[in-house]
Amino acid sequence: MKKVFFILFIIIFILFSFGYRDFYNKKNQIKKDFNVLNTCKLTYPDSKTIVANYWKLKNYKSDFFYVDNWNIVFVLDKKELDWKIRNELRQWINWKNLWWDISDNKIHYLLADVKLSKIRDLDEYTFLQIHSEVNPLLRIIVKKNKNWIWNHIWAVVRINTNKTWKRTERYDLWEVNNKFEKIEVLAGDNKLIVKKNNKIYVNKNVSYWPEKQNYFKAWIYDSKNSKWPWQVKIFFRDLYMN
Q: Which of 47, 48, 146, 166 is the most exposed place for a label (fewest CB within 10 A)?
C-alpha cells in the first residue's frame, strides 16, 4: 500500500510540476509594454523617411527594427560602401512635437537598459542622443579606438554654439560588456547629467546651449560614415524618454 501511495505521489508531483512550468512560461511570454513607443516615430534609412509612426510601432517588424517579448531591437547592416545609413527612434507624436528647452525647470529624463555590440568593422556608432533642429548637445557613442582605448562608451558633449567650429568634451563611460547596462540622461534647469549603472560620469552646466527644440533619440548611426561593410545589433531591455 505504501508503494502505491508513493507511486501516486510521484505521478501527481510530475503532473503538477509540468502544469506549473507551463503556467510560468505562459506568464513570462506576455509581451512587455514599451510605452516609449507611444511617443516616437521610426525613421530609416535617413532622418526624413518615416517607416512607422507611434500607432504602428509595437507591431512593426523589419530586418532593421523589431520588438520581441523582452527587447526593442535595432539592427543595421551596411552593405553599400558609400551609403550613409541610420536607424532612429525619435520623440514625436504624429504632427505634434515633443521638443523642449534645456532651460526648462522640468527635468527631462532618458533611461536605457541596453546591451551593445562591440565594434570590429567601423570607427564608431551613436546609440543615444539629445538632438535639436540644428545640432546635438549630447551623443553617446561606442568608439572602436580612442587614444588606444578600445571599444569604450563615450559621452560626447557639445561645449560651444559656433556652427562652423564645433568643440566637444568626451567623457569615458568605460568598456562595452556583453551584458545589459543602465544608462541615464537628465537634462533641464540648465544642467546635463549622464549616469551609467548609477555612477555619474557627466554633471555639467549647459546654460550656454541656445537651442529651444531639443529631443531624445535612440538609434544606430554610423557617425563617421565608414567606407566598408559592417553590422551592428543592439538590444534595449528598457527604454524611457520623457
A: 48
CB distance 234 to 242 below 8 Å: no
Instruction: Sort strands 138-146 and 149-158 into parallel, antiparallel or unpaired.
Output: antiparallel
Q: Please count the other Cβ atoms lying within 10 Å of the Cβ belonging to residue 12.
A: 10
Pair 176, 114 in one domain: yes
Contact 65, 48 (CB under 8 A): no
Q: What is the spatial distance between Cα 131 and Cα 88, in angstroms, rounded to a whole number?
A: 12
Contact present, 242 and 111 (Cβ < 8 Å): no
Mean pLDDT of 199-220: 93
Domain holding 105, by residue range, is: 35-241
- Asked if 64 contacts 70 with a C-beta cutoff of 8 angstroms, the reply is no
Flag whether pLDDT at 25 surpasses 70: no
Contacts of 22 (CB under 8 A, 6+ apart): none
- Scan for cell 504632427, then name that residue: 95
Whole-model pTM: value is 0.84
Say which residue the cell 554633471 belongs to: 203
User: 40 and 23: one domain?
Assistant: no
**75 and 179 share a domain?**
yes
Is 96 found in the same domain as 65?
yes
Same domain, 16 and 90: no
C-alpha–C-alpha distance, residues 179 and 69, integer Å: 18
User: Is residue 24 pLDDT above 60, yes or no?
Assistant: no
Q: Cα–Cα distance between 150 and 144 in angstroms, integer?
A: 5
CA-CA distance, 69 to 156, in Å (whole number)?
32
